[in-house]
């Protein structure tokens, strides 16, 4: 038992040392990030015929479906984040085309929803949902499963990607976060990244910024366990400028612009706020506290035995 006192002393000193904030992330490193990407819509929901394409708009080039754009953009985010070392999961899968990669679809080549070039995807948790609600919950279940698995060792983020179909006067990016928790620090980081690239949602008539971010009880956010869950509307497919053009639709149909959306999101993740690893620090401190507690118990038992043996002499 000669080690007991030094061990207790070392544990006490270790616990008394304040945990310094994590060093700033390298601008190139996402190795401690787990990212869950949810390409909005495009799933085979058997409670709805046809399957959910999301927002659809008629253009000079034919019908454009939101699900085609979200899938391609999600693959771009995945590819870029993985190149920086992140571990990335999708809420949808393509069993028939597991090697799926981003496409250079433009206004002349983007496929209509359900075509052979852009088949509907399968939900990971519930491949055959019987309702739209089940399809939504499948996405959240994937996010929650991965969050529960990795939250103690990695930073976990959930991004649900969409292309809005709203007031024609609005164009640009907006995003939402859960309303059941305090405003996550990442909100400010993402806002800065969007504004730095001039992508914030604005009124085409007045030019004023309009609702860049807000808390909102979307299903994929209100049922999420992870406070770092975000629903991002990358563009308004029904925007209408003074000249009659649709600026957001033109961007969404441009593969370089879809790549720019991916770069913006990954840039924000590279600059996510510090310190982030509160869960890991909590676990480390708790483990050390338990070690100290058991060490004190052992020390106390040893003292009692020593006292009893000395009193018998």
CATH domain topology of the largest domain: Aminopeptidase
Structural class, judged by helices and strands? alpha/beta
Order of helices and strands: HEEEHEEEHEEEHEEHEHHH
Task: Assign the CATH superfamily of the largest domain.
Answer: Zn-dependent exopeptidases
Distance between the termini: 21 Å
Q: Supply the number of structural domains.
A: 2
Instruction: Classify the beta-strand content into a percent band.
Output: 15-25%
Keywords:
39% helix; six-stranded mixed sheet; elongated; alpha/beta; single chain; 313 residues
Please tell me about this protein's structure:
This protein folds into 2 domains: 4-20 and 277-311; 33-270, Aminopeptidase, CATH 3.40.630. It has 8 helices and 12 strands. The protein has helices spanning 4-16, 66-83, 132-150, 186-196, 219-222, 247-252, 255-270, 278-311, and strands at residues 33-39, 56-59, 62-65, 87-90, 92-93, 122-123, 155-164, 170-171, 174-177, 202-203, 213-215, 229-236. Strand 2 (56-59) and strand 3 (62-65) form a beta hairpin. Helix 2 (66-83) packs across helix 7 and helix 4 packs antiparallel against helix 7. The longest helix has 34 residues, at 278-311.
List the helices and strands and how they pair.
Blueprint: H1 4-16, E1 33-39, E2 56-59, E3 62-65, H2 66-83, E4 87-90, E5 92-93, E6 122-123, H3 132-150, E7 155-164, E8 170-171, E9 174-177, H4 186-196, E10 202-203, E11 213-215, H5 219-222, E12 229-236, H6 247-252, H7 255-270, H8 278-311
Parallel strand pairs: 1-4, 1-7, 7-12, 9-11
Antiparallel strand pairs: 2-3, 5-6, 8-10, 9-12
Helix pairs in contact: 1-8, 2-7, 4-7
